[in-house]
Amino acid sequence: MSLSMLLASTAAAQEAPESAGGEVVVTAVRLEQTEQRLAACIARHCPPAEDVAASLSHVENQFVAGAYRDARRTIGEAIRRNRGFAKTNPVDVAVLYRADARIHAHLGDGDGMKAAMRGMLASLRAGLSEDDPQTLYGRIELADGLSELGNIRGAEREYKAIAEDAAAAGQPTIRNFALLRTASLKVSLAQLSERFRPEARAALRQLKTASASDAAGFRLATQVLETRLAMAEGAPDAVDALIARVQAEPASTPRLLYSEPVKLGAGKWDDPPLQSYEDQWIDVAFWIGPDGRTRDAALLRQSEHYSGGWNKRVLESLASRRYVPLALPPGDPGLLRVERYTITSRLATKLGSRIPQPTGLPRVEVLDLTMDAPPPGMNPQRAS
Description:
Layout: H1 3-7, E1 16-20, E2 23-28, H2 31-43, H3 48-64, H4 68-82, H5 90-106, H6 110-127, H7 133-148, H8 152-168, H9 172-192, H10 197-210, H11 215-232, H12 238-246, E3 256-258, E4 281-288, E5 294-302, H13 311-319, E6 322-323, E7 335-349, E8 356-368, E9 381-382
Helix pairs in contact: 2-3, 3-4, 3-5, 4-5, 5-6, 6-7, 7-8, 7-9, 8-9, 9-10, 9-11, 10-11, 11-12
């Protein structure tokens, strides 16, 4: 999930990494500036679209700074100011709820995430028809959220319904995307247990049949899923075979083919041990070379209360990544990326208490902080 997907199109460039003499240069609009802009917008009762843009810009700054709870409060206030405009500004309001959902995810709050995703979809439905592409894609996002929260069968049912509704609405690409999400879910299950492999193969066959007329958009995604399934079935060279097939079609932007997950275990950490899931995040910078391999991954910064050696596990995961080879000029070193990793644990209410507490099972939330170029008209400055 990229930062732009989390916070949509904001009015300011945030934490945009660039290459300058081999060093990482961070550019940003300062936190106090986005705070002042938002306050000024609220004071003059600016239109909803402007309020949303100013709110998201400040929330993005707070999030990148690691102030997750401040970002949650800012986005919550923005939702309260603007949710009444869902009928006239459905997409703007939906973006606020979408950002709220991702922040809840990084805080480990599954219930908050689910409520925000439902708010996102309700906002789209308030101003758009059921067969509008934005509404259909919103339903896919909600189904993705169900899957992430462990409601596998609920997500599967919703993907199926979306595919049928999209086909009836004359939206074959959205239908195919819903089938792709179904196949991805089935392959993920097949990687955990071989009993799901027949379902995964059936889902892939359905996807290939349905998306045959839209092969350019779905061929690579289907091949990636087939490779993941082949590896689960004991074909360790499947990734190399996929790389060989896509060599003739280099990409201009990063397209991930394979990655080992961040292996967190069941709460057992390197020395020193993790004592709390609060304020546990790191930013990692790495290069994607022209051959699609990662290199020079390094810890860029960490949260104030960072504890434990889990950054080693992140670096191991990054080292395993394979991307589609990049279409770059000779001698170009590749593309620099920066990603935020947050260690959290889902919250749950324990017997005898009404206060949600971490379940103790660690999970990782990842967000791409890379901004490939600042928005037009902006003059980024170095962050102090």
